[in-house]
Specification:
binds flavin mononucleotide, 3-stranded antiparallel sheet, single chain, 7-stranded antiparallel sheet, Pnp Oxidase, Chain A, 16% helix, 12 strands
């Protein structure tokens, strides 16, 4: 039955492969956008927290639960996470979009980004790094490994705790309530209608 439905769908939606163009090396990463946005928090050796927006965050393992983030060598957060070996992935919703460009245009080396953004630093459950209270979900990580990936390092994080807003998540985000931010073409969009 599954196969018949699949074959019928193929007949209805049959298309031909389109003509291909070569994509320049500097545009290759754009083939992987739109991407959901995350706000990474981390701390310095005195416990002072920093915030950094990233589009390069991904799940890495179910068991044990692991996630990964790609951070450029030039970022202050790179220095902090390399030293403390912990970070938190905070998921912002569309209400927080106004913060992203600013937080991504200044460095925690020069600016106290919690102070500047007036976002709320909440204590985490297992790590010293604070959560961003206004975000809808938080994944607390200890660095399990660091992979040299050219001008970025992939930090693989062992998940030591995770929380989400009660009214926003049960086994998945409730997309009627939660509008995740996606990055595309130096702009932001959010999720739309299901297509299948
Ligand atoms: C939408 C957006 C996505 C970004 N994604 C990443 C990313 O995935 N990795 C990265 O290294 N930098 C990324 N950046 C750049 C950093 O957020 C930015 O350089 C930031 O100021 C670094 O802060 P820090 O120096 O306090 O660590 C992104 C910036 C924006 C605005």
């Amino acid at each position: 039955m599954k196969k018949i439905i699949y074959l019928m769908l193929q007949i209805i939606t049959m298309g031909k492969p389109s003509e291909k163009i070569d994509v320049k090396p500097n545009l290759v990463t754009r083939l992987l956008y739109p991407r959901p946005m995350a706000l990474i928090t981390c701390i310095d050796s005195s416990g002072k927290p920093n915030i950094m927006p990233v589009a390069w965050a991904m799940p890495a393992s179910f068991d044990p639960p692991m996630v990964a983030i790609g951070i450029a060598l030039t970022r202050y957060s790179h220095e902090l996470i390399s030293k403390t070996r912990e970070f938190v992935i905070n998921i912002p919703t569309k209400e927080l979009v106004k913060h992203i460009d600013y937080l991504g245009s200044v460095s925690g080396k020069d600016v106290d980004k919690f102070k500047a953004s007036k976002l709320t630093a909440l204590p985490a459950k297992k790590v010293k790094t604070p959560l961003i209270g206004e975000c809808v979900a938080h994944i607390e990580c200890e660095v399990a490994s660091m992979l040299d990936a050219g001008d970025h390092t992939i930090f693989v994080g062992r998940v030591v705790a995770a929380q989400a807003n009660r009214d926003a998540f049960e086994t998945n985000y409730n997309l009627n309530k939660v509008k995740i931010i996606l990055r595309h073409e130096k702009r932001y969009l959010t999720t739309g209608r299901y297509i299948a």
